[in-house]
Amino acid sequence: MVAKSIMVVGTASHAGKSWFATAICRSLRRRGLRVAPFKAQNMSNNSYPCKEGGEIGRAQVAQAEACGLEASASMNPILLKPNSETGSQVIVDGKPWRTLSAREYYEHFEYLNSRVMAAYSRLAAEYEYIVMEGAGSVTEVNLKRTDLVNLGLARRVGAPALLVADIDRGGVFASLVGTFALLEPEEMALVRSFAINRFRGDVSLFEDGVAFLENKTERKCLGVFPHAPDIHLDAEDSVSLDGAPRGNGRVAIVRFPRISNITDFSCVPNAVWIEHPTGIRFEAVILPGSKNVIGDLQWMRSRGLDRWVLAQHAAGARVIGVCGGYQILGERIDDPFQVESAAGSAEGLGLLPVTTTLEREKTTRIVEAETPGGRRFTAYEIHAGRTSIPSGAEPFAMAGMQPEGMRSGRVMGTYLHGAFEDPVVLEEMLGEVCAARESKDAMYDRLADWFERNADMRRFEELYL
Q1: Domains of the chain
Q2: Which in 214, 257, 286, 355 has the greatest CB count within 10 A?
Q3: What is the pTM of this model?
Q4: From 221, 323, 383, 434, active-site residue
Q5: Residue 435 DSSP one-character state
Q6: Which of 357-366, 383-392, 423-432 is least confident?
Q7: Has 434 been annotated as catalytic?
Q8: What is the pLDDT of residues 401-436, one digit of tens each?
Q9: Measuring CA to CA, which residue among 58, 19, 98, 36 is closest to residue 380?
Q10: The dihedral of CA 285, 290, 293, 296: what is its sign?
Q11: Given 25, 267, 417, 434, which residue is catalytic?
C-alpha cells in the first residue's frame, strides 16, 4: 500500500467525524496532495449513485467532492441501509448483496473485511493520502472482534487516529477520559490526539478543561473547534432531523420511520416534518423516499396519516411523492421477491393511477432531466421499483427523450431524487422560493478554513502527515 492514511474516530455517533473528515480532505487537497476519502462501513439510507455504477453513503460523496473527485464505490465498500428495526440491506462494492439481521451480518466478517481491504488497496495505489472515517463510538467493546470500520481497520492499515468529541452534548470530560480508558494498548498507540467539537462561547474559558483532558488522556489536544452554524454539509442520515426546528411553513413532509434521502428537501424553506395528523391545512404535502415502502405505508395507516394526506388533498393541497413516496401515491405496491418487506403487497393511497412492482435488481443512475417549464437539472435514481404508468399520462419531467414520473392535477410523483434541491425546480413545482445557496465548492473551502484556523496545524502535521 502506497498511500498514507489518517482515521477520524469519535467518542459517539454524530460527534462530528464526517465534518472533520471532510474538512481534512479539503485542507489536504488545497496543499496540492492527491487525497481520497474512505469509510469502510456506513449505515445510512441517504445514498447517492456513482457514475461508474452502484451507490455509496452521501457523506462520502461530499468528501469526494471536497477532494475534487467523482464518487467511487471504493470509497464506501459497505453500506447498510436499514429496512426494519433489526435488519438492513447490505450494499457491497455499490451493489445489493443480502438483507441480513445484525447477528447474521457479523457472521460474514471475513468476507466483508476482504472487500474492505480490497477497496482500500485500490485507493491506496492511486492516491497519496486516504482520509478514513470511523463509525459510531470508537470503543464499542462488544463489537471489537468484528470491527470493520474503526481502530481494527486502523491497525490493519497502520493509520494514526484523531478522536473527536462533541462538547455541545455535554459530558465531554467523561466521554473523552472514558474512551481512552477503554482502549487497548495497541489502540491507544494509534490515537495520537483529540479535538473538541461544537464549542460555543469564549474558548479561553476552556483552557483549564483542555489542560485537565491532556493530563488525563496523556494526549495533546489538536484544538477546540467552535460551533459553525453557517456551514452546511449534506446530512448523513435522518438523525440530523432530531432537534431540528419543526418549521411553520406551507409545506408538510411525512417523516417515515425508514425515510431515505432527506437531502431532497434541504432547499424547502420552513418545511414542517409530520409524524402524526395535525389540524393545520397545508398548501403542499410531500411523501419522501423510504427503504421499506410497504412498512412505512402500514405505519402511516396505523397513525391515520393515510386519511390525513387524502383529507389535505381534498382540501386543496398539492401532494408530491418522491421515490418510495411516489409508489405510495399509486394504487398498489407488490413485493413478490420480498425485496423490502415480507408483507407481499399493499394498496396505495390511490392518488395516482399507477402500480409498482419491487424487483431484485436495483436502478442506480444519474439523470439529466427537464421540467415542463424548461428547467434542466441533474438528479439521480436509487430504487428497486418498476412503476407502470397509463399511456398518455403527463410526466413529472423528461429524462432525455423518456417521460419520467407522473402528474395528475394537484398530485405528482417522481423517482428523481435531488429534483427539489434545484431552487428553480422547487419554485416551478411548489411555488416555494429558496434563498440563494452558497456553492458546495465554496462551502468546502470555508470548512477547511474553519479547521485550519482552529487546529494546531504544526501539531497536525507532526502527528498525521
Answers
A1: 4-233+442-464 (3.40.50.300), 251-430 (3.40.50.880)
A2: 286
A3: 0.91
A4: 323
A5: P
A6: 423-432
A7: no
A8: 999 999 999 999 999 999 999 999 999 998 877 767
A9: 58
A10: negative
A11: 417
